[in-house]
Q: What sequence folds into this?
C-alpha cells in the first residue's frame, strides 16, 4: 500500500511555494521550541508576549533570506549538496540578521520591543537548521525506499571519483528505473582509496580482476573521467577489460549534457572506434573556407562513407552551390534529407543528382549545366574480394569512370580536381588497388597535357573507422550472433583513421595542391586485426576463446598482410602540415598513358577477365596478385 502511494506521487512535484510555506512553518516551530526549552516549558504571560513579537521578527527575516538564497527551489526527494549549501546560507543569513537586530534594539525598540536572549537565538538557529535538514532527508529516504520498482538492479563500478563521477552516482541514485546500483568507485588517487564517498567505497583500479568483479557481482563499469586524452583513455579502458569480463560504458563530455545535467540515457557502451582514435588532428579551416567560399563544388560518390563526410564539411565553407552525385539512389536520398535538415538555409544551393560516373552523356550534361569549379572525386568501387571477381566493373568505374570525369573537368576548365585514392594502390596485390593506381597514373598525366588549366591532385590514405563494409561492423554482427569472429590471418595489420579527420585532410590537401601531387596522410600506428577482434569481444563483456571464438579463415583473394603508403622506389616530401606529405612518384608522359589506355580499352572489349587483369599489370608492373586466380599472370612475366 505504501509503495503504491509513493509510486503514485513519484511523477508529481509540489509547488515551490508549498515548500516555502513548510520551511517557514518549521522555523516558527523552532523558535517556539527554543522558548519552551529555554524556560523549561513554563513561561509567564510576558515571555509568551515576547515570543510572539520575536516570531514576527524571525519570520520576516526568514522570508527575506528564503527569497535571496531560494532553498525552496529544489525538489526535496532529490536534495543534493548544492541544496544543502543554499539552506545553510539561508540559515546563516537568519542568524546574522537576527543578531544585528538584537544588538540594535536599544536604538529602535524604544522599550516596547524586547531583547531576545542569546541562548534562545542559538537554540532557534540550531533547531531550525536541524528541522529543515531532517525533513528533507526523511522525505528523500522515504521516496528512495518506497519508489523502488522491484526490478533487479545491475551492480556497477564508477571509474573516477571526481566531480563527474559524483554526478554519475547522484544520477544513478536518483533514477530508480535506471536498473543500476553503484557498488564502488575506481580511482588512482591513493588518498581516496579505502574511503567511502556518499556511502560508496573507493577502490584502486589495480584491484580489478575476475575474483573482484565476481565478489561484487559487477556487470558494468561506467567511465566517468573527463578532460582526458584519447591515449590515456585507451590505456585505462584496455587495462580494465584485460583484467575482467565487464561491459565498459562512458558518460558523454559535460558540454553535451542535456541542459547542463547528465542523463543516464546518454550513457553509451565504449566502442572499439573510441580506443582506436589517436589525438585528433587539428586543422585550421580558415584558409580552406577562403579558398572554397562562393565556389561551385561537385562531389562524386557523395553518398558513400568518405563522400558524405566531405559533403558535410563542404556545407560549412559557404560555397555558391554544392552538387552531390552518386549512383546509389537510397543513400543519396538519405544524405539529402540529412543535409537539408542540418543546413536549411543552404538547401537552395544543393543539387542531388543520381548518375553513374562511367556514363559520358550524364557527366557531360552535369558539367554543362552546373559548371563546377572544384571537383572531389570519391566515386569508386572499393571492396577488395568483390572487385577481384569483378575486374570489368573495377575498370569500368574506378578507371574509365575517373577518366570520363577528369577529361570533362579539363574541357570545362575546372580549377581543381581532387581524387580520393587508397593505400591499396601502393604495390597492389588486388584488382581494386591496381585499378586505383591506374586511375592515379591517368590523373597525374593530365597535369602534363598541353593546354590543361585544371590542377589534378590525388590523396592516399588507409581504412577509415565506421566506413561501409569495414571490418568493425562485421565483427559487431558476429559477436552479437554469438560468434565466431572471423579473422583472415593472425598477423594481418591495417592503418585506421576517423572519417572526419580523413576528410579534413582531403580538403586541406586540395587547397595546398598545385597539380600533380599525390598527398599521403599520417595514419598513425598500424593496428593488428587480431588484437582488434580481441578488444571488441572484451568490450562486449565477453571472454575471447570462452564466450566467443576467433576463427582464422585465411587471406582472401587479393588481400595482403599489411598496407603501404609508398611504392618501391618512392620517397615522400614534407609539406607545411606535419600530417601531410607528398609522394615522389614516376610520371608517365601523356602519350604513354594514352597508349596504355587504348590497350586497356581493347582488353576490356574482349570480355576476358584474364586479359583485362593482364593489361592492368602492364600498366602497373608492381601489381603482383596475392592468393588469387591472377597469380598465374605473374608467372608468365
A:
Amino acid at each position: 500500500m505504501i509503495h503504491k502511494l509513493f509510486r503514485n506521487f513519484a511523477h508529481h512535484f509540489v509547488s515551490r511555494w508549498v515548500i516555502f510555506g513548510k520551511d517557514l512553518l518549521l522555523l516558527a516551530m523552532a523558535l517556539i521550541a527554543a522558548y519552551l526549552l529555554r524556560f523549561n516549558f513554563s513561561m509567564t504571560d510576558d515571555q509568551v508576549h515576547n515570543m510572539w513579537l520575536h516570531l514576527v521578527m524571525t519570520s520576516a527575516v526568514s522570508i527575506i533570506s528564503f527569497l535571496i538564497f531560494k532553498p525552496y527551489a529544489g525538489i526535496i526527494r532529490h536534495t543534493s549538496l548544492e541544496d544543502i549549501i543554499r539552506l545553510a546560507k539561508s540559515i546563516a543569513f537568519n542568524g546574522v540578521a537576527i543578531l544585528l537586530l538584537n544588538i540594535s534594539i536599544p536604538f529602535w525598540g524604544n522599550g516596547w520591543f524586547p531583547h531576545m536572549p542569546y541562548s534562545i537565538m542559538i537554540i532557534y538557529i540550531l533547531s531550525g537548521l536541524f528541522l529543515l535538514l531532517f525533513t528533507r532527508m526523511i522525505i528523500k529516504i522515504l521516496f528512495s525506499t518506497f519508489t523502488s520498482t522491484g526490478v533487479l538492479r545491475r551492480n556497477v563500478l564508477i571509474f573516477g571519483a571526481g566531480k563527474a563521477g559524483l554526478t554519475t552516482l547522484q544520477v544513478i541514485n536518483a533514477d530508480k528505473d535506471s536498473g543500476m546500483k553503484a557498488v564502488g568507485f575506481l580511482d588512482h588517487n591513493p588518498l581516496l582509496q579505502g574511503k567511502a564517498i556518499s556511502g560508496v567505497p573507493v577502490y584502486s583500479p589495480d584491484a580489478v580482476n575476475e575474483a573482484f568483479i565476481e565478489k561484487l557481482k559487477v556487470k558494468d563499469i561506467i567511465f566517468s573521467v573527463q578532460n582526458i586524452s584519447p591515449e590515456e583513455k585507451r590505456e585505462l579502458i584496455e587495462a580494465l577489460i584485460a583484467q575482467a569480463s565487464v561491459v565498459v560504458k562512458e558518460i558523454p563530455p559535460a558540454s553535451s549534457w542535456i541542459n547542463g545535467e547528465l542523463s543516464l540515457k546518454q550513457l553509451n557502451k565504449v566502442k572499439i572506434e573510441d580506443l582506436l582514435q589517436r589525438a585528433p588532428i587539428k586543422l585550421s579551416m580558415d584558409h580552406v573556407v577562403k579558398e572554397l567560399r562562393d565556389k561551385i563544388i561537385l562531389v562524386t560518390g557523395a553518398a558513400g562513407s568518405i563522400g558524405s563526410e566531405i559533403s558535410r564539411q563542404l556545407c560549412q565553407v559557404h560555397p555558391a552551390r554544392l552538387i552531390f552525385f552518386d549512383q546509389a539512389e537510397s543513400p543519396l536520398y538519405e544524405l539529402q534529407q540529412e543535409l537539408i535538415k542540418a543546413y536549411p538555409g543552404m538547401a537552395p544551393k544543393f543539387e542531388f543528382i543520381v548518375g553513374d560516373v562511367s556514363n559520358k552523356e550524364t557527366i557531360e550534361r552535369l558539367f554543362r549545366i552546373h559548371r563546377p569549379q572544384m571537383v572531389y572525386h570519391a566515386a569508386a568501387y572499393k571492396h577488395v574480394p568483390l572487385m577481384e571477381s569483378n575486374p570489368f566493373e573495377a575498370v569500368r568505374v574506378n578507371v574509365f569512370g575517373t577518366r570520363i570525369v577528369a577529361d570533362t573537368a579539363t574541357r570545362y576548365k575546372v580549377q581543381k580536381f581532387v581524387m580520393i585514392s587508397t593505400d591499396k594502390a601502393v604495390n597492389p596485390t588486388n584488382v581494386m588497388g591496381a585499378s586505383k593506381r591506374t586511375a592515379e597514373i591517368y590523373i597525374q598525366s593530365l597535369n602534363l597535357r598541353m593546354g590543361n588549366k585544371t590542377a589534378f591532385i590525388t590523396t592516399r590514405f588507409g581504412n577509415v573507422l565506421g566506413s561501409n563494409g569495414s571490418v568493425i561492423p562485421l565483427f559487431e554482427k558476429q559477436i552479437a550472433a554469438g560468434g565466431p569472429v572471423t579473422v583472415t590471418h593472425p598477423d594481418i595489420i591495417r592503418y585506421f583513421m576517423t572519417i572526419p579527420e580523413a576528410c579534413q585532410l582531403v580538403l586541406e590537401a586540395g587547397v595546398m595542391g598545385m597539380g600533380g601531387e599525390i598527398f599521403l596522410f599520417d595514419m598513425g600506428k598500424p593496428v593488428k586485426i587480431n588484437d582488434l577482434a580481441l578488444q571488441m569481444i572484451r568490450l562486449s563483456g565477453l571472454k575471447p576463446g570462452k564466450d566467443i571464438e576467433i576463427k582464422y579463415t585465411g587471406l582472401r583473394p587479393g588481400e595482403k598482410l599489411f598496407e603501404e603508403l609508398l611504392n618501391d622506389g618512392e620517397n615522400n616530401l614534407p609539406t607545411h602540415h606535419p600530417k601531410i606529405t607528398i609522394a615522389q612518384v614516376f610520371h608517365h608522359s601523356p602519350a604513354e598513358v594514352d597508349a596504355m589506355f587504348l590497350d586497356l580499352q581493347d582488353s576490356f572489349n574482349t570480355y576476358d577477365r584474364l586479359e583485362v587483369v593482364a593489361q592492368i599489370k602492364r600498366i602497373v608492373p608492381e601489381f603482383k596478385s596475392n592468393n588469387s586466380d591472377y597469380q598465374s599472370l605473374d608467372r608468365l612475366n
Notes: The longest helix spans residues 118-146.
